[in-house]
Amino acid sequence: MKVTYNWLKELTGITASPEEVAQKLTSAGMEVEEIIYQNKHLHDVVVGKIIKIEKHPQADRLLVCQVDIGKEIVQIITSATNIFEGALVPVSLPGADLVNGVKIQKSKMRGVESVGMFCSGEELGIDENYIEGAGVYGILILPKSAKVGRLVEEELLLNDVIFDIGITPNRADCMSVIGIAREICALYGTQLKKINLNYDIDVYAKDSVRDYVNVEVKTKNCYRYMAAAITDIKIEKSPLWLRARLNAVGIKPINTLVDITNYVLIELGQPLHAFDQSFINGKQIIVRQANKSESIEVLNHNTYNLDENIMVIADSEKPMVIAGVIGGTNSCINNNTKVCILESAVFDLKSIRITSRRLGVRTDSSARYEKGVNVANSEIGIARALHLVSKLKCGKVVRGIIDIASVKNESKKVVGSIEKINEILGVEIPTEDMIRILNSLGIETKIQGKQLICIVPPFREDIENNNDLAEEIIRLYGYDIYEKINYKLFKNAANTEGTYHPRLYLERKFRYSLVEKGFYENISYSLVDSNMSAKLLLNDERKNLVRIANPISEDLSCLRSSLAHSLLTNVSYNLSVGNKDLKLFECGKIFYKNKDMNKELPIEQDMMGIVVYGENFDFFNLKGVVENLLIKTSCVYRLERSKEKFLHPGISADIFINDIKIGSFGKIHPLVLQNYNISGDVYYAELNTAILASLPEKKYIVNSISKYPIVERDLAVVVNEDVKVGDMIDSIKSACGKLFYEVKLFDIYRNSTIGENKKSLAFNIKLSDLTKTLTEEDIGLVIKKVLKSLNYKFGAVLR
Amino acid sequence: MIKEDLLKLSNDSKKELEGVYDIKQLNELKIKIFGKTGLLTTFSKAMRDVPVDEKPVIGAIINEIRKELEDKISEKEKYFKEKELNDKLEKEKVDITEPSKNNELGAIHPIASVTDKLIDICVSLGFSVVEGPEVETDYYNFEAMNIPKNHPSRDMQDTFFITENTLLRSQTSAVQAREMEKRKPPFKIICPGKTYRNESDSTHSPIFHQLEGLVVDEKISMADLKTMLTIIMKRLYGDETIIRFRPSFFPFTEPSIEVDVSCPNCHGKGCSICKGIGMLELLGAGIVNPKVLEISGIDSKKYSGFAFGFGLDRTAMILNSINNIKYLYKNDIRFLKQMQ
Fold it and tell me: What is the model's pTM?
């Protein structure tokens, strides 16, 4: 919201500098986001009078002008053609730094000295709407009233300071100059100037407002509708001071009547609408919901189809205005308007908000209505507009104002507790300061015992309870009170025990363990392109992606259903920038549609994904990575050939705890790699960390260790290719019985001498006994048993 | 006669010992003196022929010489062994500037790292870590936070919707109501996690991380909030850190404040990180709006609370001097490596 310093100064009577006022407003919660100095590029630009024009001796197109700038006569060379002797023009003198970046210096043009430059409207940052002649191609010719030698910024009222203030949604009342002025008065202890609401009526005239219009309200979304009539309209340019104010806050001046409605909107936050009465069919204004067959062309020159969710201001046959949002072209003020109907209304904020969103039309009017205009405001707004009509003599105000109100908005009583307010703030604010602050904000406050009796004006609907009062008090008392005091932590509150989140805790163990092994943690966007399922060849429930209804773009339109997508994308990206040997992991949620239609929310799963790209890494390295994580949990798991389509069917496994799948790992399917533009092998693992974290914590039961040394034997056997090593290891374990300590496969050998479809496996077996040193005889017996078992079960032959 | 011979043997041997230059020669000399046919052994054997009365004297001399030579030899032996070892060690010398081996080390992502740090700080201060879904209902994300449908305060957050009633949470505050329904005061919780907003530019990412804190107990005040946040910020940014409050507005807190934290880089003097201001606008906070407590079934007459929330992405950027928000989600190894 833009307001000007001079406007605020006029209403508040303050003398403080713009910078100080801005700082104070910010510290009170009205954040001044920008201070704009209107005259930033107007220094050294003065009103000059051209007293003599001669041709340049060396150049046909140039003119040499003698210009009176008050204290002296200067010579200026120009190529402009619209100047004449006696013309008053803006002159930029050496030192000027114009808005278009031009810097003025004394110079010579074809041997003749030129001390400055004449300015066009554009070079001063203004247009034809602001002042006549500002839009022409050429020099701005100033009105005859301009005073020679005066700064142009003063002459054209371009010397205000504009504050752009961020208004928080709870302060609808501050969407106006008066609202911010009220805050300033509270901050500086000054008195808000009374807004002049008086206007003249011809007491001898016979007509009254009902001779021009009747109003009927047929919707509950209109809380109050006021209408006045103005006759003898003169459509003219507004006076400069009015244009200056509107221009400063970014509103285009049009004509006096329209400018008045905009002025009141900015000053008091009351949107107004002016109709040309001659276009109101049957002199009848009907406020109603639209119906489906209707449409309207509005002032932005778009035509909108309406329906019953949209409120309109209609006459007996057509909608004329989309209520609270934008006026139609069929009934607006134009150069021939003679009689005007002025509307000052209050609408339901939700209704306006919905309409504004639906149509995608945001106006100064809708911006205020959707934050809430209070019902009392409409009568102040209309009176203020009529006052300006009288004052600027742009029409005659007809007797009477139509006022149809369904909602009353009166001051309300809020009882505050001094003790509770201090308890909320945790500091003692003197009671007299509380009362002073609240009163300064227009909240009439009296003390009654330990209570504050507050009469809250209608424009502060946001104030309801002790917390609201506490906020008003502290923001004006100053939050810097907290800087001076050192407090004990929770002097009144109980101790609580801090606890970690089980899953985050487990993930942390996993993450730091992986980092030690050279893995980098990734965090990727969980929003992905809808082609993710196809790229990953997903064919299970995870192919049903959750889609965003209002995505930023197609590539961020769905939620990921697998971390593999994120990590493969990251591998692909890293390869593209020349990074090699990639070991990455990510913890994050995956999402897919819930089959259970009764569930509102989709499935969310917490997963950890691990990916490796690089040489000297294979499936069994990956298996080791996975095992080293799982061993940190209490899980007892088994592996099965993986059914995941994005993994190599022969080089992948699914991990199960009982019948619940908790993850998969393996080599990425070559077709998937193609989809991600990766050449070379990629290994991937994923674990459901939520399930793992839900298991009981791992318990350690330490076995006795023997005081006798371990003995070891190596054993190489030949078996058929299809024999599973895992099964052989199990068999070795059980054959060793209680002497078993450890078994390791240390070599696999394939060679034609061994035979087709055969492999030689070399095991290192470690034995240990708690009670004695094992003898050769003991060891021989065990190894014999192992061999026998391997031979019996797997046809293994000693090599 | 024998005496002189012995003395000569002793002197000759000593002389010879001095000339010995390696362990091999020493061993040869040892044998020459003490071996079966060694010089001294020969004397010992010759003791038989020594008259009985001279035997003790000669015997003593032999023993003395033997002792003396043995000591000298073992001394020499020790010297040679030490020298041999030292020579060996000298030969094994390496170039210590050669690169190390087996030093694979990855790194924790900066956002995750700061999250871990904050979790540790808050758990030690009595907070419990909780989580909620990222796809959330309109109710928990907005309505239970005192942001009714079609209310202007909805404009503060551009939200991604899934359906009319489900959305990607725009704030971790969504977890507040879920927890308040489950828990009985007093409690302190924090909720770290991903949040989503429909905006993307040079300073905003549509996905970012927040950490939300909530304390509910009897008589919780703004002063408690100030103390708690001061402790957390000091532990995060260092002991010199100070914080300042400014009024603000959030529908779920009343009073609401913005919290400025002194710039950890310049400690308030002003630098490029804080754009010369000396303070960074880092948190939103306030006293929990009693309406929010009531919506979730907590008696606002008996209990009050404070809540705070802040962006972890920004925190990670400040703590690690990361100057480009785009780095955070690209997962470029050249970036992550710097976090080792």
Answer: 0.87
